[in-house]
Structure formats: C-alpha cells, structure tokens
Amino acid sequence: MPRVPAHLRERALGMLQGGMRTADVARAINCNVRTVRRLRQRYRETGRTADHPRSGRPRVTTPAQDRYIRTLHLRDRYRMATTTARVTPGTHNPSISAQIVRNRLREAGLRVCRPDVRQVLTRHHGQQRRLWAQTHSRWTRQDWQKVLFTDDWRFCLTRGDGRIRVYCRRNEHYTEACTLEWDRFGGGGSVMVWGGVSQHHRTELVVIAGNVNAVRYREDILLPHVVPFLQAHPDMTLQHDNATSHTARSVRDFLQDRNVSVLPWPAKSPDLNPIEHIWDLLNRRVRARAIPPRNVRELAGSLVEEWGNISQQELANLVQSMRRRCTAVLNAAGGHTRY
User: What are the Basic and acidic residues biased-composition ranges (predicted)?
Assistant: First the structure.
C-alpha cells in the first residue's frame, strides 16, 4: 500500500483530535485503520507524524575500501569501474557492482567525463611555451592590438563531433533509428580556408583549393592578402604557427624582403591562438543555419557569409584574452590549458 503523504497525516491527526473515530478517519484519507492507529501512537510517543529515522540499506564497502577505491582511480584516471568492482570484495557478497564504485567515486568528488583531446607536449615544448608566456605576459592590451592572428582550417561537409545523443530502448542500440552514419574521414568533401583577425580588423576569408604548401601559401595567401593588409597597417605584426608551409625558407625570405614583422610562436600551442576559437564559432554558426550546406560549394559560401556575420566585438573579446592565456600557460608550467 502506498505511503500516506505528509499533508494527509496532518489532516488525519486533526480529525483524531477533533473526536472522529479511527475508522472514519481511515475512510476519509483512504488508508487502513491500522495505519491511523500507528500514526496516533507515533504522535503520542514523539510528538510528530514523520517516520522514525531509518538506517537505510547497509553499505557493502568499508571506509578503508572506500579510500582504496578513491586512491586506485586517482592513480589511474582511465581505470574502469568494472575493473575495480571485480577486485573489490563486498561485506556481504564476493564482489561489488560497478555502480557501487561509481557511487563511491562520486562521494569523493570524482565524476566521469570525456577526456579533452590535445596535442602531445614534450618537456622541450613545455619549456618553450613557458618561456614564451613569461616574455609576453608583460604585453599590454595595446601591444596585442598590433598583432594579426592568422591560421588555416579544414571544414568537412559531414562530421561527427561526439556531442549527439540518442534515446533508445533496450536492445535498440544498433537499430536504424538509433544509428548515426558518418564518414570518419570527412565524407562528402571538405573546404580549406584561411583567415586573419585582430583587435579592430579582419582579413577576407580565403577559400583554398587543395592543401597548403609553401608555394601556395606565399602566392595565394601572403602576396594577395597579408602583404596588402600589413602595408595598410604598418604597425602590425604577423602571427602564424610553425607549420612547414609557414617556416619554409622561401616563405621566410619572402617576408623578410618585404619587411614583414613576424611574432615568434612556440610549437604545439594552438591554445594560445584566439583564432582557433573563431573556427569553432564559425563551424557552429554554419551547422546552425536553417538550411545546412549540402555540398562543398554551398559549404564554402556559407563559411564566407558567416565569417562576415561574426561581430568585431566577438573577435576583440578573443584577442583581449591573450594575457589570460599567457597566465594560464604559466600556471600550468607550460602544460595544457583550458583554452
């Protein structure tokens, strides 16, 4: 029989105190007569109608086992709960369930989440990142305003980002309604683009046919776009990463002959470049369009259009985060940051 709610208990107590018979009270709140009698007896003993405190289900692990489970998963963050459950005996059973392990870890403040995928950083990479951050952490907002952040990115027509979820019943996991088909190598085609942003300006979004090598970077990007932009803004500095197309001798000689100032950049440091967040913003804007692009031509047009729709204030906010990015690298001793 279902438990009597608290408001009905108070109502039944008022009826009893008003002189009604036990049977009439039970009929009024639709419960058994013995329930009303126990309710009256509990009120006489404790002065309240709430249930007695209950011990609940006994724990199947001891405090020492709880600490052991926590230590195991702090030492190996990728250890599965099922593995720990198999080797941990319970107080009443030969082993405990994986859910018990998850409950103990949750009590210890450990929750399961997707690992953030980043590039491999060696000790040398960490040292270079730390030294760069130490040097540029003293730069003011006015200094960062004079940097043109550039990068290229490839957008795929179809892509699985790992964020899609589907609700399915038992044994329906592999049915057609619960299966999402996509090509892991970017089926349907892709578009390579290049762009540059600064505190107050932005370049055109350049659609690149094929891959970027040193010759194409020099002839299709630097000569028609970067050099005219920097000539119109002579106080600005070019930033690009250490891709082979950027560090080739022909590219370095080309920039040196035209007196283009290049900002030194540490290797394996996409988290320091604010334009990386703009690519994510641009991708989400294209995916959120009322009519998503259906082919490569429409994808290229959508990217160019959405690039122009991004407000300059959004770009400025990302550029202004450079001091915080340097501080984050220093706090991480050259390691990965939240950016």
Answer: 42-54
Q: What is the Cα–Cα distance from 199 to 45, expressed in whole angstroms?
A: 74
Helix (H, G, I), strand (E, B) or coil at 151: strand
Token pair for 46:
């404790």
pLDDT tens-digit series, residues 208-259: 988 889 999 999 999 999 999 999 999 999 999 999 999 999 999 999 999 9
Residue type, 60: V
- Interval 20-71: pLDDT, tens: 999 999 999 888 899 899 888 888 888 888 877 777 778 888 899 999 999 9
CB 206 within 8 A of CB 193: yes
Give the bridge partners for 191, in sequence order. Answer: 155
Tokens 């370049």 -> residue: 203
Q: How far apart are CA 258 and CA 263, in angstroms?
A: 15
**Torsion of Cα atoms, 201 then 326 then 324 then 259, to 10°:** -10
Residue 214, token pair as written in the block: 């040193």
Q: pTM (2 decimals)?
A: 0.71
Burial class (CB in 10 A: 0-12, 13-18, 19+), 320: middle
3-state secondary structure of 245: helix
Give the span between the Cα atoms of 191 and 202, in whole angstroms. 20
Q: Which fold has domain 123-331?
A: Nucleotidyltransferase; domain 5 (3.30.420)
190-219 residues labelled b (16+ CB within 10 A) or e (exposed):
ebbbbbbbbbeebbebbebeeebebebbbe
Phi/psi at 238 (5° precision): -85, 135
Q: Which residue has the tokens 């699985």?
A: 160
Are 324 and 310 within 8 A, CB to CB?
no
